[in-house]
């Protein structure tokens, strides 16, 4: 199977929080894989999660603005909107994504 993703992914099992500042609410999530341009998040249900939100990882507490690019039964794929902060810097990945790669990243759920 060919992997056509634009950025190398690292498999992780890291907790985090999806934050909706305008609603003053949060939802727990688990990051399952991570790249310098996006992530796959496991959630109880993607229902009610808006198309844009802040992801706050448990490890470093640095919020990342995210845009949902796909949804599945209990997972969502997100693209990071701001490449200035490297959420995956501890994996040795450089934050070198372009705006075009953000728009086209994670176009479908990963294969199981």
Give the helix tally: 1
Q: What's the CATH architecture name?
A: Beta Barrel
Determine Rg (CA atoms, Å): 13 Å
In CATH, what is the class? Mainly Beta
The CATH topology, please?
Thrombin, subunit H
- Please describe the biggest sheet, giving its number of strands, its sense, and whether it closes into a barrel: 6 strands, antiparallel, barrel
What is the average of the pLDDT values? 75
Distance between the termini: 12 Å
Number of extended strands: 6
Number of domains: 1
Helix percentage: under 10%
The fraction of residues assigned to DSSP E strands is 35-45%
Order of helices and strands: EEEEEEH
Question: Can you say what the CATH homologous superfamily is?
Answer: predicted glycosyltransferase like domains
Low-pLDDT segments, ≥5 res = 84-108
Which structural class matches the secondary elements?
Answer: mainly beta
Q: In what order do the strands lie side by side in the largest sheet?
A: 1-2-3-6-5-4
- Tell me the overall shape: globular
Write a compact overview of the structure shown.
The protein is mainly beta and 112 residues long. Helix content is 5%, strand content 41%.
What does this structure look like?
The structure is a single chain. The protein has one domain (about 10-95): predicted glycosyltransferase like domains (Thrombin, subunit H). Strands 1-2-3-6-5-4 form a 6-stranded antiparallel β-barrel. With about 110 residues, the protein is mainly beta. The longest helix is centred in the C-terminal third of the chain and has 6 residues, at about 100-105. The chain has one helix at about 100-105, and strands at about 10-20, 25-35, 40, 50-55, 65-70, 75-80. The N and C termini lie close together (about 10 Å). The protein is globular and about 35 Å long. A hairpin with a 3-residue loop joins strand 5 (about 65-70) and strand 6 (about 75-80). Helix content is about 5%, strand content about 40%.
């Amino acid at each position: 199977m060919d992997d056509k993703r634009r950025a190398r992914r690292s498999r992780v099992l890291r907790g985090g929080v999806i934050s909706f500042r305008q609603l003053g609410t949060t939802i727990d999530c688990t990051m399952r894989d991570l790249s310098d341009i996006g992530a796959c998040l496991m959630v109880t249900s993607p229902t009610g999660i808006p198309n844009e939100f802040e992801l706050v990882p448990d490890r470093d507490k640095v919020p990342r603005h995210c845009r949902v690019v796909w949804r599945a039964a209990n997972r969502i794929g997100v693209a990071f909107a701001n490449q200035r902060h490297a959420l995956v810097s501890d994996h040795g990945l450089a934050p070198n994504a372009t705006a075009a790669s953000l728009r086209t990243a994670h176009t479908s759920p990963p294969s199981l």
